[in-house]
Amino acid sequence: MTRCPAGQAEVEMAELYVKPGNKERGWNDPPQFSYGLQTQAGGPRRTLLTKRVAAPQDGSPRVPASETSPGPPPMGPLPPSSNPTSPPVGSGPASGVEPTSFPVESEPLMEDVLRPLEQALEDCRGHTKKQVCDDISRRLALLQERWAGGKLSIPVKKRMALLVQELSTHQWDAADDIHRSLMVDHVTEVSQWMVGVKRLIAEKRSLFSEEAADEEKSAATAEENQTIPGFQQAP
Known about the structure:
mainly alpha; about 50% helix; about 0% strand; rod-shaped; transcription; Steroid_recept_RNA_1; transcription regulation; apoptosis; transcription coactivator activity
């Protein structure tokens, strides 16, 4: 029996281990792992999150079928109204109806106020001093100028119309009260000519009192003459 040297035996053992296709392994060899077993197994595949999804063509978002909740079927279009062209009630004014017009109080005319004042001044002439009458005339001319120039407000014009009305009916106290109210409420508008109106009221009142006194005196004289026996009035 021929003994192999120690070195030759080790070489033969190494060739045995590295020879391809050899299934025999030593007891102290480390285990071999195969990294291709996971791909060969038939397990479930994971969905890649980086996969792009094509956008819908109509622009509306797509909802998965699993997320849609079951509901009643869509209803058809509503039937048209019997009169679609008629506007709703209260949407606008009815055609052919004119807005209600409210009466507006007219503004007093300048002639209606100045004419009675000038007539009262003419009645006072011959019974009042000429200087007083001339001053009243200047004040009335100033009133006319400011009225025609649009420098008097409507409240002043209306009160002057009331004053003339009271003056024409011999309501002296009422006319004087209106004069005082104008001097208090509208002093900047009436201060330059209201002095003449005040004086005219006073002169017209004095003249009326004198005329009334003369009439009473004449009536008393006539009554006395009728009571004298044998006295006859001239025809």
